[in-house]
Structure to design on (345 residues):
């Protein structure tokens, strides 16, 4: 069994507990938090609680899931890696590229694996979309669109003092839209340039609550990214659309779990109907966090790189930072300026 520990016993930690319990070959043995009351909620006869991460790292733990506020991810990942433990880190993996690179370097230098939690890649509709791209069903792609029209009200931000801050949380791109940005990159490939506007229009937070960006991919296709947490009165839409010479696909809904448009020149009506119905019957599939935990468990056993590695997680972070930089400077940002030095494979 691959033995897991969790640091940070907040809301997202519960998803990690469920994922570890459901994954084959994984078991939860330890949790860590500086809040004793929260820690007690996660401990049991078989799960030991620790107030200090250093103490937990001395225990018989193989992997540590980092579920703390985002601004702590880099420091804790490096500490865990130096203790020769594998790492699963929540999104965003860090708030700066310098921190992300330090995390990747620490894991490589200590011979441990690093997985970043971008679980939406495993949604059935997203997997179906990726399959169509792999089969070249779109032909030449014209453009893509990623939309996150959500509601995070002021009470959400007031609930914890770190939320909405640049130092510990980030804005709508870093904290909400980064998942959809990861999907766009996974589908469309690397980005060449980004232009962007951002504003803090409605929420009383330090970071942006609304962002609009235009993306030019290296393959020549274009992209539009719209993200906001100001939609009244509740979440309205999360969608990913791809438009090509022989295909149009929109994965959407309040979360991107359904095939809202699914038209391909080489796909008959019966095949289309079958696929749409299959997704409608099971739009959520296996929970994404479980897929992430299962993958790194298998990666440890097989000695391979996790599907959503540190390098993959950095790509989404890099696009967030490019959009933020473009908005701050009012200039087009070249992604090559943000490349990782001596990029890992």
């Amino acid at each position: 069994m691959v033995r897991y520990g969790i640091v940070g016993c907040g809301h997202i930690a519960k998803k990690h507990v469920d994922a570890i319990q459901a994954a084959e070959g994984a078991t939860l043995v330890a949790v860590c938090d500086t809040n004793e009351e929260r820690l007690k909620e996660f401990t049991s006869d078989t799960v030991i609680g620790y107030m200090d991460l250093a103490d937990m790292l001395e225990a018989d733990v193989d992997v540590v899931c980092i579920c703390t506020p985002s601004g702590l991810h880099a420091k804790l990942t490096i500490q865990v890696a130096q203790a020769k433990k594998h790492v699963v880190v929540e999104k965003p993996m860090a708030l700066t590229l310098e921190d992300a690179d330090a995390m990747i370097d620490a894991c490589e230098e200590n011979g441990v694996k690093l997985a970043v939690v971008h679980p939406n890649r495993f949604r059935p509709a997203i997997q179906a979309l990726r399959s169509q791209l792999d089969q070249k069903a779109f032909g030449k792609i014209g453009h893509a669109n990623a939309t996150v029209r959500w509601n995070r009200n002021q009470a959400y931000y007031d609930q914890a003092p770190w939320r909405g801050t640049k130092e510990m949380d980030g804005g709508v791109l870093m904290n909400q839209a980064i998942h959809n940005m990861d999907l766009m990159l996974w589908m469309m490939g690397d980005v060449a340039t980004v232009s962007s506007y951002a504003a803090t229009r409605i929420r009383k937070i330090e970071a942006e609550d609304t962002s609009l960006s235009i993306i030019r991919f290296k393959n020549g296709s274009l992209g539009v990214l719209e993200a906001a947490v100001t939609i009244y009165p509740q979440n309205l839409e999360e969608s990913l659309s791809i438009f090509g010479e022989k295909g149009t696909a929109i994965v959407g809904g309040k979360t991107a779990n359904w095939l809202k448009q699914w038209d391909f020149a080489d796909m008959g009506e019966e095949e289309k109907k079958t696929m749409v119905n299959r997704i409608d019957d099971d739009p959520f599939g296996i929970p994404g966090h479980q897929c992430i935990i299962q993958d790194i468990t298998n990666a440890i056993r097989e000695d391979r790189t996790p599907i959503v590695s540190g390098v993959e997680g950095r790509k989404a972070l890099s696009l967030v930072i490019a959009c933020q930089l473009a908005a701050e400077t009012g200039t087009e940002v070249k992604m090559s300026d943000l490349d990782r030095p001596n990029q890992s494979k």
